[in-house]
Every structure is written in structure tokens, then in C-alpha cells.
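Annex B. Sample input.
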Amino acid sequence: MQTVIAKAHPDETGELRGLFEKQLAELYWAEGIMQNMLKGAIIQSSSSDLVRVLQQHLRETVAQRERLLNIFIDIGVPAHELPYESIACLVKEAEDFIKATRQGVVRDAGSIALIQKIKHYEIACYGTMRAYALALREEGVVTLLEQTLEEEKATDAFLSAIAISHINTEAADKEI
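Annex B, continued. Sample output.
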């Protein structure tokens, strides 16, 4: 009689670990792209309030990328970037918008909307990565991801506040 050895099912943690590492590399790439995009958005913005929020978020983005580097170190994986097609498409949309509009409040209103699209995507990604880190029992990593997640949420809220308080109204007045 021949003995059949059952193959072990793939380790679910290993599969999640691979997904976590892939998305970490994508976020590392995305934060680098965001640094460049934010520098351009600062130059192209006319609202001093918007410039101030974008300058603050640029500083946070540099720190967020550093946190991601620390996560790579914490989990024992060499830091590397993986292009993130979804973010690349959103950044291209923002660049195309800037080229198609004149500097002023209408451009500022559109820029806020486009940056918020990216922020919302990042909020979803960082929230998911936090959940993965919890499942993988990477407690030290969870704190780093939570810090970035809170910064992304705060930036989104600041952008909304600026848009609602004056930029959207000023842009609408340009239409009249």
C-alpha cells in the first residue's frame, strides 16, 4: 500500500505577509511620488491657506516615507519601491488638470479635489495595512501606520475646511 502524504495548505499568514510587503513597497513608492506632486502643487496654488496646508503635508509626507523605511527595517525586509498604478493614475490626473487650468481659485478648488482623491486612497491603504499588521502581530508597525493614517485624515479634513470656508465659493463667484 502506498502512503499518500497530504500537502500542507499554504500558510495563510505567509500569504498575508506577502500582500503586506507588496503594499508596503507600493506605499513607499507612492509617498515618494507624493513628495514631488506636493512640491508642484505648492508652486501652482494661489491660496495662502492651501499653500500652508500643502507645505505642512509635504513635511509629513517626508516623515511618512521615513516611517515606511522603518517598517521595512522592523519586519526585516530590504526597503524597495513598487510602482502603484492606481496612485500613478491619480497623480497624472492632477498633473493634467494643472496644465489645463490657469492659476487661481478654480485651479485651487480642483487641486483640492484631486489631492483629496489621493488622500482618500491613502487612508484606505494605511487602514488596510494597519489591519494586516495587527493580524500579523507586528505591534510596533501598527503604531507607525496609525500615526500616518491620522495625519492623512487630518490633511483631508484641513483641505475640506479650506474648500468649504472660501475656495469653492470664490471659484463659484468667478463663474458669475
